[in-house]
Write a structure and sequence with these properties.
Number of helices: 2
Strand order of the largest sheet: 1-4-3-2
Order of helices and strands: EHEEEEHEEE
Distance between the termini: 32 Å
Oligomer: single chain
Structural class: alpha/beta
Largest sheet: 4 strands, mixed
Radius of gyration: 16 Å
Helix content: 10-25%
Length: 136
């Protein structure tokens, strides 16, 4: 079994996944818009540019996303996507990239449990925790 986070957005999913592709060094495998899908004729025309399903691969991990139907978006809360890195330099790079335009909740720095840890909510509202190998 694999657990895959699925993130919801309010019409920005394409921009978000392009941002994550750059920040995380991943590859977008799929980005299907409602208007390109088999159900295109069943959804209002103003939904056609919204993302029905997006899939990003980073290493051997997946991240899914979609735009919520208009009027049904709820801001993400009560979770964080955690990324674990073997080296603090790579953790710092990703933390800095995700922080651009976002809100740092805890600066990236060594802690008693990790050689690097930080918390950020990115410019799109997704909360992230970046964790690196345990402190020596």
């Amino acid at each position: 079994m694999q657990i895959v986070p699925h993130l919801g957005f309010d019409g920005q999913c394409a921009a978000v996944f392009e941002f994550y592709e750059k920040c995380l060094g991943g590859v977008i495998n799929m980005m299907m818009r409602h208007g390109e899908s088999p159900i295109a004729s069943e959804v209002p025309a103003d939904w056609h540019s919204r993302i029905l399903h997006a899939e990003l691969t980073v290493g051997d991990q997946l991240l899914y996303g979609a735009d919520a139907p208009p009027g049904r978006f709820d801001r993400q809360q009560g979770f964080a996507v955690t990324l674990n890195f073997p080296e603090p330099d790579e953790g710092r790079r990703v933390f800095d990239a995700l922080s651009a335009g976002g809100t740092i909740q805890m600066p990236f720095e060594p802690t008693f449990w990790a050689s690097g840890f930080g918390m950020v909510v990115d410019q799109f509202g997704t909360p992230w925790m970046i964790n690196c190998n345990p402190a020596p």
